[in-house]
Amino acid sequence: MDAVTIKSVSKHFSGKPAVANVDLEVAAGEFVALLGPSGCGKTTLLRLLAGFEKLDTGTISIGAREIARAGRSAVPPEERGVGMVFQSHALWPHMTVGENVEYALKIRKVSPAERQRQVDRALSTVGLAERKDAAPETLSGGQRQRVALARCLAMEPSVVLMDEPLASLDVHLRESMQAEFHRLHRQLGATIVYVTHDQSEAMALADRVAVLDHGRLQQVAPPRALYAEPATAMVADFVGRGMVVSLDAAVAGRAGSVEGRLWGEPIHLRSARSGTASMRACLRPEGLALGQSGIAAKVERAVFEGAATILHCRVDRAPDVLLRVLDRAAPPAEGSAVRISVNDGWLLPAASVISAAA
Question: Beta-carbon neighbour count of residue 185 at 10 Å?
Fold first, then answer.
């Protein structure tokens, strides 16, 4: 396994930036997810890592070896020591499972005995040793994705790149494959860079999540920190059910704990321990509650979600704002007047400075 270092990397298409001045360090053995909406640049960044696209600016290194630099010949994809798992399984239908896994090794002219050793080990790792002679058409979707993963692992790459590998699977298969990827990462200790637009997938699998928007890195942090302490309004809105609201008045207090006013009501907020605060806060449904006092609103919609109900409440003093409140009691009727208290919230930093919390 090797570390990945991305420095000042940019890529433009038709004069527009797909990736804009990205800096990212992935430690050896770390699982990092690239997360963001469609068109944010995450797949382009992965393709730059794989060698399928050329840099416009910056450098990329794997371990101590620089594999790409703008204006210079890059190391070809097949010589980078990376393995790629795509959304499409891309299995040859006329080959058995074992032959599919073996194919790239044969192209590399690996000896027959060594090929079989690597194929057997890779299939055993993904739990498909007994299906070595099976045809791909006889496998389930999850099994086919595991064959594609085995094909990657058989190459013994120093870095594994995954481009939305679960997007084509149904919900139940996706959950089981998430567990499989988690198990394999713990077992192999591989360095993994994983592209997804599914935030629950990124949060469940990754050691750290890198959020991109319009080609720019917004924040890099462990999942819990990303959720609890978003660095930008975009991250607050995109990750979880964040609601970004503007405060009425300047906040006062010490670092880490501040007081402010929201629609005339006093509220308490968590804040960064250093840096300058803004006048915007991130609220989440579980941090809000119905009570006898607080922000005046009316229930516009109640959405039952099993263990709880999400109440969509229209704020009296800001009719364009809907607050979503997680409520575990019997929900009030739609149209009811309620009061909402803020039990937990996060004061966004003043500047959109990228956080790279370890």
Answer: 20
